[in-house]
Amino acid sequence: MGLKLFNTLSRSVQEFAPRAAAGKKVGMYCCGPTVYDFAHIGNWRTFVFGDLVRRYLEFKGYEVRHVMNVTDVEDKIIKRVRETKTTLREFTVKFETAFFDDLKSLHCRMPHVTPRATEFIGEIVALIEKLIARGIAYQTADGSVYFSIEKYRGCGCTYGQLVKLNFDEMRPGVRVAADEYEKEALADFALWKTRVPEDGDVFWPSPWGEGRPGWHIECSAMSMKVLGNSFDLHLGGEDLKFPHHEDEIAQSEGATGQPFVKHWLHGAHLLVEGKKMSKSLGNFFTLRDLAGKGFTGREVRYALLPAHYRETFNFTLDGLTGARTALARIDECVGKLRALAAPHPVPAPVVSRAGSAPGAPDPLTDRFTAALDEDLNISSAWAAVFDWVRDTNKRVAENALSAPAAMAALAAWEKVNSVLGIGAAAEAEAPAEIVALLEARQAARQAKDFKRSDQIRDELKAQGWVVEDSPKGPKLKKI
Ligand SMILES: [Zn+2]
Q: What distance in angstroms lies between residue 234's CA and the mean position of ligand 1's atoms?
């Protein structure tokens, strides 16, 4: 069954198909963090959504190349660098490191490439030169370079592919220098900003003199350098549709004359405790704030995934407590399955990420896949999980589950969990079937069946795990 996703370009739900016909390779670019502060829970909703998209594509058998940039030079960063009297890199490195630590805490798969804007200045300059050569960008008296919306539209290109824009009010040649502006301020936007005293030491040489790039051109340059002029999937928060993504399209298509991105995906925002998040309302949380209140990354991840990605939802501390309860229900059920499966040391099934993996279909995976195929209907997917938990608990209570059936149920759960990414309770990080093998090895050792226990150890090794015996008992370690 095919995956359908809402494409902001067409304003409709459509079948997802990579550009390469019959291809299984997907180039995916997610606008990453602007490293001027710790990411807040609203940002994390978008990044966890991006991780869900990647995990589900991988589950469907796609080979995803996931690129997430780090915006390490733009207006807000320069302001903070000036205020804190530090250097650009000294300032950004701590927020960049914190971002990737938090990304791991939230069980997000690490992007394959994480380009920093400051390391792509050469590509940015080359892209601006191309736009100037095509007559779409122009230099102003102060040495800055702007993108001409009028010239771009004059080439038959469309500005306003993601959002509806009103050009009646637009005066040709009016310019906006700031990286962020509203639709009402529709105007030519800055590609290269000439050096001003407030920039301090943040500048690079260019054909137009010393200066720095605008924010929007950074993503065009990085995405096309890593993924090519045209790629499959671009996603970000809905606030980035305009001007950031609209400008990315204009810069990229203006320079190459080729379609930039096939599918655009935008995630909605969240409310926190019923209101728009703000520092003054006391409802502004970073992941660190929530960790300080005793919540784990796993619990926060769960609490960020209750609703469809295009719907706003209300994130609350009560919801986080609810996440803890829900995860405990899943852990308890999986724990029972492990106990049932443990004395039955059948070779562990190879868990495949592909939804079409051979083997008997199971109702959990079928319902889960049907839900997510429909534009990532995550609430239906969770309903499938909790119906499965209820049914499994019932069958366990009735002694109606054999060890092989428990193994099969665990394998189904692992497949589903490869998408949800909620991992397992802290004491057991390994997949269920690996834990089951470890327990079988323990049972063999207790029965003094050392031949069998060695066999299982070798099998674990073949699957990428080593057993380390410690005074507290055996521990699994990934090779
Ligand atoms: Zn971007």
A: 9
Supply 428's token pair.
Answer: 């057991």
Question: Model-level pTM greater than 0.70?
Answer: yes
Residue 399 to residue 397: CA distance in whole angstroms: 5
pLDDT tens string 289-324: 999 999 999 999 999 999 999 999 999 999 999 999
CA-to-CA distance for 97 and 88, rounded, in angstroms? 14
Task: Say which amino acid occupies 162.
Answer: L
pLDDT tens string 256-284 = 999 999 999 999 999 999 999 988 888 99
Q: Which 3 state secondary structure label does DSSP give 193?
A: strand
Tokens 């226990």, located at residue: 453
Burial of residue 413 (number of CB atoms within 10 Å: 0-12, 13-18, 19+): buried
Whole-number Å distance, alpha carbon 434 to ligand 1 midpoint, is 40
Six-digit token string for 119 = 């390391």
Q: Which of 351, 325, 324, 328 is nearest to 410 (CA)?
A: 351
Q: For residue range 144-197, what is the model confidence (pLDDT) as tens digits? A: 999 999 999 999 999 999 999 999 888 888 999 999 999 888 999 999 999 999
Task: Give me the sheet containing 25-30, strands edge to edge.
Answer: 63-68, 25-30, 231-237, 261-267
CA of 241 to the centre of ligand 1 (A): 10
Q: How many other C-beta atoms are found inside a 10 Å radius of the C-beta of residue 445?
A: 17
Which residue in 328, 350, 357, 355 sits closest to 422, CA to CA? 328
Residue appearing with tokens 């829900």:
326
